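Lab notebook, bench 4. The sequencing result for the construct came back, and we need a structural model before the next group meeting so we can plan mutations. Quick request posted to the team channel:

Model the 3D structure of this chain.
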Amino acid sequence: MDKVRLEIIGLTYSESPTGAYVLILGDKNSRRRLPIVIGSNEAQAIAVGIERQQNSRPLTHDLLLKFANTFNVKILEVVINRFRDGVFYAMLVCQQGNEMVLIDARPSDAIALAVRLGCEIYAYENVMQEAGIIMDDMEEDETPDQSGTINKVQDEPDLDLLTLSELEDLLQEAIDDEDYAKAAQIRDEINSRK
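Done. Here's the predicted structure in token form:
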């Protein structure tokens, strides 16, 4: 399958009842974005890895990497390989000696490991086509805010009461506003109707 090389664009807070975050991954060769809703613990694990914070005791992802290194397992890359019923799935592509091993993982955990290792993050093209958002209105040299600014999701209209056409208009508005959390919710509602 064709793979798309991704980079972390940002991590935004959603003031939803669950207090979730949205991890925004971007296609390195286009303006496509892949927003993934993750929990606060997962967001913290990714942020700690990005910032290369040193802790007095190893965190779970640091412990897993130490375990892998001890037993000569190399994590070569992370691949987001499926999107089903609004849920993303990923795998770690690992090597132990001459053997290649694929390990099922949540995307948030896989990315927390990838940022610590500096290994590549990919998504299959079919995942990008199904769950990605295209940033049509951005200038060539523009990128979404990477400052870590917290974006709050405002009270939303009841999405299940809107027509498909209204949802598509609302999705474009969310993309124009770079409101990835809102866009992800609308995209999921549109996909559930198809």
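The mean pLDDT is 83.
Will bring this to the meeting.
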